[in-house]
Design a protein that fits this description.
By secondary structure, the protein is mainly alpha-helical. It has two domains: 204 residues, Alpha-lytic protease prodomain-like (Up-down Bundle), CATH 1.20.1510; 67 residues, 2-Layer Sandwich (Alpha-Beta Plaits), CATH 3.30.70. Helix content is 68%, strand content 10%. The chain contains eight helices and three strands; from the N terminus they run H-H-H-H-H-H-H-E-E-H-E. Strands 1-2-3 form a three-stranded mixed β-sheet, with helices on one face. The radius of gyration is 24 Å and the shape is elongated. It binds zinc ion. The site of zinc ion has 4 residues, from helix 2 and helix 5. The site of zinc ion (ZN) has 4 residues, from helix 2 and helix 5.
Length: 282
Amino acid sequence: MRIDTHHHHKKAGENLAFVFFMNLAFNIIVVIGALATNSMAILADFIHDASDTISIALAWFLEHVAQKDSTDKYSYGYQRFSILGAVIISVFVIIMAFVILQEAIPRLFAPEGVDAEGMLIIAVIGIIFKSISVYRLHRGETFNEKAILFHQLGDVFEWVAILILSLVLMFWDGAPYLDPFVSIGIALWLIFNLGRNLYKSVEVLLQKTPDNFDVREFRQSIEAIEGVNMIDDFHIWSLDGIDSVMTLKVDVDFGKDVAEIKKEIYNISNRYHVVDITIEFE
Ligand SMILES: [Zn+2]
């Protein structure tokens, strides 16, 4: 079991490294392309793709670091590093998206010429690069790989949209405002998605009860155990948005088999991705 897990992570590391370098190379093409074509839509995509590259680098790094065992200094291990990373990336991309809006909105009223043929070439390169990444990750088994796979798949469609835009610009002279219009759409989409991501990440850092955890249902199933009188004190918080930590003080009838009660509590909490649980009986 353990050897198997390590094997998955090693393979995941290799896949993510490959996708990271693909994205990095693509970022360089896109930023040159954005400047050469004068397209705000491609520039907005560059912001998106650059944030993807940073996210992939972080995921790749975390495949090593987050698996590392806890230490005396970080007794919970390194899982929260991924949440901190998400906060930093989200803030950065939201700021960049506002910069795009600031540039693109005036252009709606005074459209500038763009090189539609150049945009078409970059869109084709984009579709190829993103498709190769999707192919490389499609058999991935770890959470990080799957998350990035679905994201990259969405990105393929984003470049298909740019391809359609470039064709429209090529054949329809009256459409130069479409380029800033599309870039505003991309910027708003980034602000919305990363804003939501930021909100969720901050909730985890503030030790909010995990979203999928029903406190009432949990209390009821614990208090239904024979020998348990009631839960006196209860806390649950998530380390990284997936794995949670729980502490609870339970008022029990000491005439009952306490070890059995403990076992049942473990069984119930196992349903909720609880990786560490502290139980006190009183
Ligand atoms: Zn993306």
